Amino acid sequence: MTPATDAGLHDATRRLAGACAGLLLLAVLARTTGRPGASLLAAALFAVHPLRVESVAWAAERKDVLAACWWMAAMLLYVRYAERPSARRLAAVAAALGAGLLAKPMLVSLPFALLLFDAWPLRRVRTWSAAGLWPLVREKWPLFTLAAASA
Questions:
Q1: Residue 2 pLDDT exceeds 70
Q2: How many other C-beta atoms can be found within 10 angstroms of the C-beta atom of residue 43?
Q3: With bands split at pLDDT 50, 70 and 90, how would you rate the model's confidence at 130?
Q4: Which one, of 22, 136, 137, 21, lies nearest residue 69 by Cα?
Q5: The dihedral of CA 53, 57, 61, 63: what is its sign?
Q6: What's the longest Cα–Cα distance across the chain?
Q7: Which of 65, 52, 51 is nearest to 14 (CA)?
Q8: Non-local CB neighbours of 20 within 8 Å, separated by 6+ positions
């Protein structure tokens, strides 16, 4: 059997991507909340949730596992961007979003999720007025544009 037709190899990549998504979530939560125990519990629950396990187990759901991995990678990259904003770091977030959109278009909601992430746990929202939120929306404009192009 050639590697291209080896089902075991496809299964291994799904499992690896599923584990990667869980570990990336752990890294994001631990870094942003400062609570490694709670972060480990949340990441473990994410990893064993029936929807996650089902995606890893089914060959047809490979796109879901890859999308979750890219989503978590984009979130981790966004945390780095929020710590020290730069065009290069935002481009890395956009690249992860673009890769995730190629895996599954459901990632169009990521820029909105990052706005919520700004509120908690990053605490970047100064005031809940339009004037307070506009700078956070404006900085994500490239991400919203990429999501809109995908939609």
A1: no
A2: 21
A3: confident
A4: 21
A5: positive
A6: 61
A7: 65
A8: 69, 72
Task: Confirm if 93 and 74 have CB atoms less than 8 A apart.
Answer: yes
Structure tokens of 114? Answer: 């990052």
Kindly calculate the radius of gyration of the chain based on its CA atoms and give it in whole angstroms.
Answer: 17
**What six digits make up the tokens of 68?**
């979750």
* CA pair distance 99, 86, nearest whole angstrom: 20
Report yes or no: 74 and 96 within 8 Å, Cβ to Cβ.
yes
Token pair belonging to 18: 């599923």
CA atoms lying within 13 Å on the CB side of residue 28: 26
Q: What is the pTM of this model?
A: 0.88
Q: What is the pLDDT of residue 48?
A: 87
Q: Please list the alpha-helical segments (H only) found in the chain.
A: 7-33, 36-48, 50-57, 62-83, 87-103, 110-119, 130-139, 141-150
pLDDT band of residue 69 (cuts 50, 70, 90) is very high
Type of residue at 149: A
Report the chain's mean pLDDT, rounded to a whole number: 90
